[in-house]
Write a structure and sequence with these properties.
heterodimer; A: mainly alpha; Cytochrome Bc1 Complex, Chain C; 2 domains; 11 helices; 1% strand; B: 57% helix
């Protein structure tokens, strides 16, 4: 009776040994170590020490976003409610779902509606990802709004952060533009008339109202030119400008000494 | 927080043992006083120099001593004080002037894992919420756009409905362009207008009231525009005539 037990144990041991040596070989390989820089949690022999905690940030791309240490109150969810970070995350999520939608969409008045209809009715995951894109966009407008309110109520725009607040207001405007330019693309009744109301408003700009409206519509009425124009604005131009301002925004957060507070 | 990591404890223990061993080895008085051997030797030599200025070690140490005037006058240059001391007090510097540090230490925590974990959790939560919401609620897709069939009412996206509501009160040039333009500009100027330094709510009652007033004003306009405007953009009660609102 004793020998099979010994046999069994040694098999289990052998399995764990070979798994261990395999992971040792993988983690010790040149390729692995070229991917994960010193201090990475995926490196062989990572232990939790203050030094390694610093390296995790310092030796990774996260160092572009976060310093090695942050103020204690800054990690409390109740202070920031994660609103700024979530706005950024929603932007990424919208980019991903938006790229998916771009594969199936043609910015042409004759095809746009049919393409949208195909996405939600026939494309795999199309309905789901279009829903996520739409609801995510509304959520981003809300989270950017709330982020602004949070920053105001914490007095976080005070020196030396005045200019970052200005950048933030620009980002709020860009968020609204992103949402509004996307509004037209499904080319249904809701899209057409919401945009008609919106652009009519902008047409009342003093002095250059007619020109503003003409530039926005790519003509005197909403048509294919408008759709193409708003498509390019929505998928390329406004996101491009937004990314630039986000980069400045995040950079200034760190240069101005991290997030404000505590109160 | 107050936990000292094990590896640090071990290191401290090892260092203590080493020091213990060194002490018992030498058992010497020199290491106990903490003054390095060569300095003791030099001072002893300098002291003996006053008595017999021709010893070899004295010349050597005089060359290194900054107080010495020169090679030949070295013997005379070293003066001894009342107690036979070879050093004197030059000045007293207050501790504050050299020990003051500009930045006060802040209470900080490591970004990894404390902040990253929170951010990752928030991301997962929002992603999960969005996925679940998207499974159960479909985004609107009405019939094909038709420039000849104006829906009644025609409404802008919800975040512009406050503006559309203003349109019922003012000329479009005022409501549609001037007010939002001035509003955004005023928002940008907020940090340059609000000069109070404190960020404590009790010191900022005015700023908070003004901001809250405008936010509420805006919210009320948007809610009226969204839910209380029916056909012809006329005022309706949503519980009587229904909701004319699409996201």
């Amino acid at each position: 009776m004793a020998s099979p037990q010994v046999q069994k144990k040694s098999i289990a041991e052998r399995v764990s040994d070979s798994v261990g040596s395999l992971s040792d070989n993988v983690q010790g390989s040149q390729a692995w170590n070229s991917i994960f820089r010193p201090g990475s949690v995926f490196r062989k022999g990572y232990t939790d020490s203050p030094r390694n905690r610093s390296y995790v940030i310092m030796n990774s791309v996260l160092y572009h976003l976060h310093p090695v240490k942050v103020k204690r109150h800054a990690v409390k969810v109740s202070y920031t409610l994660c609103l700024g970070g979530l706005s950024f995350f929603l932007f990424i999520l919208l980019t991903i779902t938006g790229i998916f939608l771009m594969f199936f969409y043609t910015p042409d008045a004759a095809r746009a509606y049919d393409d949208t209809y195909t996405i939600v009715s026939e494309t795999s995951l199309g309905l789901m990802l279009r829903n996520m894109h739409r609801w995510g966009a509304h959520l981003m407008v809300i989270s950017v709004f709330l982020h602004m309110a949070r920053v105001f109520y914490h007095g976080a725009y005070k020196a030396p952060r005045e200019f970052n607040w200005v950048i933030g207001v620009i980002l709020l405007t860009l968020t609204l533009l992103l949402s509004f330019t996307g509004y037209l693309l499904p080319w249904d009744q809701l899209a057409l008339w919401a945009v008609t109301v919106g652009t009519n408003m902008m047409g009342f700009t003093p002095v250059i109202g007619d020109q503003v409206k003409f530039v926005l519509l790519g003509g005197s009425v909403i048509g294919t030119e408008t759709l193409l124009r708003w498509y390019v604005l929505h998928v390329l131009f406004v996101p491009f400008v937004t990314v630039i301002f986000m980069a400045i925004h995040f950079w200034r957060v760190r240069k101005d000494g991290g997030i404000s507070g505590p109160l | 927080m107050a936990d000292i990591p094990d590896h640090l404890k071990q290191r401290a223990k090892a260092a203590k043992e080493k020091a213990e061993a060194a002490k018992s080895d030498s058992g010497g008085s020199a290491s106990a006083s903490g003054i390095p051997e060569h300095l003791l030797k030099r001072s002893k030599a300098a002291k003996s120099k006053g008595d017999s200025p021709s010893s070899d070690s004295v010349v050597a140490s005089a060359g290194t001593a900054p107080a010495a005037g020169g090679g030949d006058t070295g013997a005379a240059a070293i003066q001894t004080g009342p107690g036979g001391h070879t050093q004197r007090l030059l000045t007293v510097v207050k501790a504050g002037s050299i020990q003051d540090i500009k930045s006060k230490p802040l209470d900080k925590v490591h970004t990894w894992p404390h902040l990253i974990v929170v951010e990752f959790g928030a991301m997962l939560a929002v992603t999960a919420f969005l996925i679940v919401f998207s499974i159960f609620v479909n985004a609107p897709l009405q019939r094909l756009a038709d420039v000849n069939a104006t829906p009644n009412p025609s409404k802008a996206p919800w975040y512009f409905l406050g503006l559309q509501e203003l349109l019922t009160l003012f000329h479009p040039m005022v409501a549609g362009v001037t007010i939002p333009g001035v509003g955004l500009f005023a928002l940008m100027l907020a940090p340059y207008i609000d000069k109070t330094v404190s960020n404590k709510p009790e010191d900022r009652k005015f700023a908070i009231s003004v901001f809250t007033f405008f936010m509420m004003f805006w919210a009320i306009l948007s809610i009226i525009g969204s839910f209380f405007r029916g056909p012809g953009f006329n005022f309706v009660f949503p519980w009587e005539e229904g909701i004319f609102f699409e996201l």
